[in-house]
Specification:
Layout (H helix, E strand, L loop, with lengths): L1 E2 L2 E2 L3 E3 L6 E4 L10 E4 L2 H9 L6 H18 L3 H14 L4 H14 L4 H37 L5 E5 L15 H9 L4 E6 L6 H13 L3 E4 L4 H6 L5 E4 L3 E3 L4 E4 L2 H10 L4 E4 L5 E2 L15 H4 E5 L5 E5 L12 E4 L6 E4 L2 E3 L4 H13 L1
Parallel strand pairs: 6-7, 6-9, 7-8, 9-12, 10-13, 12-17
Antiparallel strand pairs: 1-2, 3-4, 4-5, 10-11, 11-16, 14-15, 17-18
Helix pairs in contact: 1-2, 1-3, 2-3, 2-4, 2-5, 3-4, 4-5, 5-6
Bound molecules: 5-S-methyl-1-O-phosphono-5-thio-D-ribulose.
Length: 361
């Protein structure tokens, strides 16, 4: 992604493998800052505080967290402790435990002296694969949009942030949107603000603006009304975990959009790289992260003097509940856009077969 004509990824290693740099997503869109992550503890904190966020990105960040741990201590105990700490940082996105397990499976059999180098190499592979997968998702999603596009303005609704900031680059749900815009199509995006943390308003809108894609931020409750008024041609969201049956776990509020889409015959797609698919879990087994009530009780933004500020929006004396994700059942999902093509939910097992075959090959 380009910001002021400079190409950025969301995460990159120091060339001497001594630290990792990440874009701090907690200060966007009003400030652009890069954070130097120098230890496993810092990486765990970066994930927990959501300086890095989005399923594929926290997978790549966790892989680099394992590399930082191996630089400090390459013992078996360090390997196990690092894996446990990283996996516990956030529970819902499967990419995190997927990346950590892949790192452990590669590092554990190695002599400790070989682990450091191998860890940095493997973390870089995971990041590189994410970029390629998201680029391919863009092309498969573009084909879908082309099929539905008739030359008149095409309105896509998205929820939360599944743009390049949620991945190493390109994004998942927004990758087809950037591709369609770049292909000259007349695309307009409805951006759900995505309370309570407002990733839509603060990150998706900013990312689309950087790329020059026309968009409008809407309140979370506006989507159903816009669908009834025929102002939404397609919904594309990302996901934190997709079951083998095609149930889509994504940011809280996605489910309501999926229901509204079904009721209004609007196609509803989830765009996910294959590491986001958990082949071994059912929808009701997915652990939904419950976050602190302050995210609901307060809102962050700029005050009238253009200073960062936090505002309480609920009277003292009330409490809040803050489940961060929900599950849209497969029956509401038109298709899963992956790096290997678009699969109806009931055909997702075919993707697993393809992946196993290419692993063996
Ligand atoms: O809590 P977040 O901001 O990490 O949640 C992110 C989402 O729900 C995204 O939609 C999801 O990770 C898609 S990833 C491209």
């Amino acid at each position: 992604m380009y910001i002021n004509n400079k190409h950025y990824r969301t995460i990159w290693p120091d060339p001497r493998c001594q630290y990792v740099e990440v874009i701090d997503q907690t200060v966007l869109p009003f400030r652009f800052a890069v954070v130097k992550v120098q230890s496993l503890a810092m990486m765990v904190d970066t994930i927990k505080t959501m300086q890095v966020r989005g399923a594929p990105l926290i997978g790549a960040a966790a892989a680099y967290g394992m590399a930082l741990a191996m630089s400090a201590d390459d013992s078996d105990i360090s390997l196990t402790t690092a894996a446990e700490l990283l996996i516990a940082a956030r529970p819902t996105a499967v990419n995190l435990s997927w990346a950590v397990s892949r790192m452990v499976n590669i590092l554990k059999p190695l002599h400790p002296l070989k682990r450091n180098l191998a860890a940095w190499k493997q973390a870089a592979n995971i990041a590189e694969e994410d970029v390629k997968q998201n680029q391919a998702i863009g092309q498969h999603g573009l084909a879908l949009i082309k099929e539905a596009y008739d030359g008149s303005p095409f309105n896509i609704l998205t929820h939360c942030n599944a743009g390049w900031l949620a991945t190493v680059d390109y994004g998942t749900a927004l990758s087809p949107i950037y591709a369609a815009h770049d292909a000259g199509m007349d695309i307009h995006v409805w951006v759900d603000e995505t309370r309570p943390r407002n990733q839509g308003a603060s990150l998706t809108a900013w990312g689309l603006a950087q790329h020059g894609v026309p968009h409008t931020v809407i309140s979370d409750n506006a989507g159903g009304h816009l669908m009834q008024k025929k102002q939404v041609d397609m919904v594309i969201v990302g996901a934190d975990r997709v079951t083998a049956d095609g149930d889509v776990c994504n940011k809280i509020g996605t489910y309501l959009k999926a229901i509204a889409a079904k009721d209004n015959d609007v196609p509803f797609y989830a765009a996910v790289p294959s590491p986001t698919i958990d082949w071994n879990i059912s929808a009701d087994e997915i652990k939904i992260e419950n976050r602190h009530e302050d995210e609901v009780l307060y809102m962050a933004g700029l005050n009238q003097d253009n200073q960062s500020a936090v505002f309480r929006v609920v009277a003292e004396g009330s409490t809040a509940l803050n489940p961060a994700f929900d599950v849209s059942p497969a029956r509401l999902v038109s298709g899963i856009i992956t790096e290997r093509g678009v699969f109806p939910p009931s055909f997702l097992r075919h993707l697993e077969t393809q992946l196993i075959k290419s692993d063996v090959g």
